[in-house]
């Protein structure tokens, strides 16, 4: 169950405590699939992608105390992207030369040593982030809804079926399909926007990946 905004601290603040297993578990659940897809898009195999994710999380754990949330310096997602991208480039380079101890690299040097990503690469990262965050949020709220409500949402918002077809399949009215879809989307937006506010992001909730 999602904690209320009144009782939950910012995820980034909580990540500064290495003993906060819940915060780190949530962070890994959201970002590990994203890093995996980024790695696979660059041709890394499963084992290398898993190693990359571990290196990224190690780097974040070492540098989170010094992370500056000032919007003028960019978003947390952008900061994380640069770490992941540069570690990935190091990993690819290690295939052609002697490996570098990327996990112990100074994060500031790690951020500065590789040219900035181009627009296409940044757009890919943002797209995968939106997909991953939607999938994570869907998993978080799934248990809050009865099966017909969830199916009505999934069939129309994700599989893009016509509401009348979903209504026929589920044995409910078209109006009930619209109501179910609206309820689930509102809950998803709330969860997604909360995560975004806690990581200084600018996600635009769209209801589907």
Written as H for each helix and E for each strand, in order along the chain, the element string is HHHHHHHHH
What fraction, in percent, of the residue positions are helical?
55-70%
Structural class: mainly alpha
Please give the CATH class of the largest domain. Mainly Alpha
Uncertain runs are 1-8, 98-104, 201-209
Please name the fourth-level CATH homologous superfamily of the largest domain: RNA polymerase sigma factor, region 2, helix turn helix motif
Average pLDDT: 77
Give a count of the beta strands, DSSP E runs of length 2 or more.
0
- The number of domains: 2
What is the CA-atom radius of gyration, in angstroms? 19 Å
The CATH topology name of the largest domain reads: Rna Polymerase Sigma Factor, Chain: A
CATH architecture assignment of the largest domain: Orthogonal Bundle
Strand-residue proportion: under 5%
Instruction: Categorize the overall geometry.
Output: elongated
- How many helices? 9
Q: In this structure, how is the largest beta sheet organized?
A: none
- Distance from first to last alpha carbon: 22 Å
Family: Belongs to the sigma-70 factor family. ECF subfamily.
InterPro entries: RNA_pol_sigma-70-like, RNA_pol_sigma-70_dom, RNA_pol_sigma70_r2, RNA_pol_sigma_r2, RNA_pol_sigma_r3/r4-like
Pfam families: Sigma70_r2 (PF04542)
Protein name: RNA polymerase sigma factor CnrH
């Amino acid at each position: 169950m999602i904690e209320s905004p009144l009782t939950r601290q910012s995820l980034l603040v909580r990540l500064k405590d290495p003993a906060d297993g819940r915060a780190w578990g949530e962070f890994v659940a959201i970002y590990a699939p994203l890093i995996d897809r980024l790695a696979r898009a660059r041709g890394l195999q499963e084992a290398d992608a898993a190693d990359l994710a571990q290196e990224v999380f190690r780097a974040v754990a070492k540098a989170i105390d010094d992370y500056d949330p000032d919007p003028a310096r960019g978003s947390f997602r952008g900061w994380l992207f640069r770490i992941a991208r540069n570690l990935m480039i190091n990993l690819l380079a290690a295939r052609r030369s002697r490996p570098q101890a990327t996990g112990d690299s100074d994060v500031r040097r790690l951020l500065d040593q590789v040219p900035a990503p181009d627009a296409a690469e940044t757009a890919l990262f943002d797209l995968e982030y939106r997909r991953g965050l939607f999938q994570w949020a869907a998993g978080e709220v799934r248990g809050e809804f009865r099966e017909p409500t969830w199916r009505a949402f999934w069939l129309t918002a994700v599989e893009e079926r016509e509401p009348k077809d979903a209504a026929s399949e589920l044995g409910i009215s078209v109006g009930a399909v619209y109501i179910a879809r609206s309820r689930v989307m509102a809950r998803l937006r709330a969860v997604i926007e909360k995560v975004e506010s806690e990581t200084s992001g600018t996600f635009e909730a769209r209801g589907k990946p």
